[in-house]
Each structure stands twice: as structure tokens, then as C-alpha cells.
Amino acid sequence: MGTPVLINKTALLGGASQGIGRAIAFELAGQGANIIALARTPASLTRLVEELPCVGGSQQHQGIAVDLGKVETLEAALSGVLSQGGIDMLVINSGGPPGGALLAASAAAYGEAFAHHLFAAIKLVALCVPGMQERGWGRILGVISTSVKSPLPGLGVSNTVRGAMANWLKTLSYELAGGGITVNALLPGFTATARLHQLMEIEAERRQVSTEQLRQEWQATVPCGRFGRPEEIAAAAGFLLSPQAAYINGVCLAVDGGRTRVL
User: Fold this and answer.
1) DSSP summary character for residue 58
2) Which helix (H) or strand (E) segment is 200 a member of?
3) In this structure, how many other beta carbons lie within 10 angstroms of the beta carbon of residue 175?
4) Cα–Cα distance between 156 and 167 in angstroms, integer?
5) Coil/strand/helix, residue 253
6) In this structure, is the dihedral angle defined by the CA atoms of residues 92, 225, 196 and 192, taken in order, positive or negative?
7) What does the alpha-carbon distance between residue 106 and residue 109 come to, in Å, rounded to a whole number?
8) Residue 239 backbone dihedrals phi, psi, to 5 degrees
9) Mutual angle of helices 74-83 and 120-135, in 10-degree steps
């Protein structure tokens, strides 16, 4: 690894205790960033903070237990860290909604999904952007899904809210451009996480096939012939959040082994 490029930068990460969020936390910590990890489970956050690397002399990590779906609690939960110097990098990430068809979803399911994703993101940006503008530097990255390019079967609510997130982020990239702040979206494909395994189990039960059979079928749709690793998604995130990516703004980057069949 080369010289850490994020020394003295602070990253706020949602969904940081597992899966892709956890991998991004390790990626950014390894580049010298201070990590403020958000998740719902205090014990998971404690383990994460203890395990994160420190490569800079004054580097510090901390966890904040919060439910992103309870938007009204976010300002109070983050007041302390915001008063300590602000956030340089905001990673908007949250566990996806349950699978299922659109017509089978209740209005409440849509409301919960939008609260956890779009409404929480709006609040986090409102809290973090003023400091970024004052310092003239900032990175905002939404971790979404390849479904914003091509909707995925059986993920009706997720397809809906992810599409809204992508358009919101794109619009935000225009509004914040020119002030040293970039706004981008990362679109993971099939990634070997607990959520993917959960979705496979649900689909396998629905079709009355084995999880292994479904795994092989899904892997066969990926030109690279395998699922991605969380660390591979995190590496792309690390670049988009870095100083080197200063001229990349408003993009939706698919990291999916070539699976998405659109540009």
C-alpha cells in the first residue's frame, strides 16, 4: 500500500457494521481516515472500532448506534462529532428493503424504505454539507444498486427507492459542483454478503430449488463468473472518496463483474 491519502480526513459511514459498509470502513481507515461508523447494534460497532486499522498518528475511530430510519434522531446523535470539526466524507449506505413484488408491498413498506434511504440521506447531507462548503472539500457517496440501471426481478420496493436515490444524488451533484464537493453513486452487483445470502434463500424457497443451484444460476449471469467480494466494492468506494477523484462528479459506477447489460 502506498502513502495514505486520507490523513486528517473524517468519514461518516452508514451501515458500517457488516457487509459492504464494513469493508468501506476498513478501506478508508487503511488510507488514514478517521471513521465514524453508524449502525443499529452497539456491540457490532464496538467490535468494528476495535478492529479498524490506524495508520496515522492522530487517527481515531468511533461508533454511534443509531437507526437511520428514525430520521428525527439523527441530528442529536451526530451533534457531538459535528461540533468536533465536521465530516469530510459521507457514505450513504443502509441495508436494502425486503424482497418481493411491487403489488405485494404495503404503503408502509414503501414508507419505511424511503425513510431508511432517501429521507435519512437528505438529513445527513443537510448536517454534513455546510462544513464541507466551509472547508472547500467534501465527498458524498451513495451505495445503491445496479437496479438503478436495470431493475432487478423480485426487488420491487428496492428498485423504486434506489432509483429515487440515484436521481436525488445526480441532482445534488449539480447543486454542489464547483465548491470542491463531489457527489457520486456506487452500484454494487452480486456481492458475497449476508444480504445476498438472505435474498438467495428467499428466492430458492419461492422456486423450490436449492440455494446452491440458485447460486450457480446467479453466478452464471456474471461475465466474471463469480460474486464480488465486499473488499472489491470498497476499493472502488475508496477511489471515489479520494483526492484523486476530484474531477469525477455525478456518476453511477457499477461494480458488478460486467453483469449490467447497459452502459
Assistant:
1) T
2) helix 194-207
3) 11
4) 17
5) strand
6) negative
7) 5
8) -70, -45
9) 20
Rounded to the nearest angstrom, the gap between the alpha carbon of residue 19 and the centroid of all alpha carbons in its chain is: 10
Q: Is 3 exposed, middle or buried (0-12, 13-18, 19+ CB in 10 A)?
A: exposed
- Is the entire prediction scored with pTM above 0.70? yes
Burial class (CB in 10 A: 0-12, 13-18, 19+), 76: exposed
For residue 186, give the nearest of 244, 242, 146 by alpha carbon.
Answer: 146
Spatial separation of the C-alpha atoms in residues 166 and 164, rounded to whole Å = 5
Residue at grid coordinates 470498497: 234
CA distance 56 to 165: 34
State the DSSP string of 86-113.
--SEEEE--PPPPPB-GGG--HHHHHHH
Q: Please compute Rg for the chain using Cα positions.
A: 18
Residue 10: its H or E element: strand 10-13
User: pLDDT for 68-108, tens place per residue?
Assistant: 999 999 999 999 999 888 999 999 999 888 888 899 999 99
Beta strand residue intervals within 108-222, DSSP E? 138-143, 181-188
Contacts of 147 (CB under 8 A, 6+ apart): 155, 158, 159, 162, 163
Give me 228's grid cell: 464480488
CB 37 within 8 A of CB 50: no
* Interval 20-46 mean pLDDT: 97
Task: Measure the CA–CA gap between 215 and 41, rounded to whole angstroms.
Answer: 29
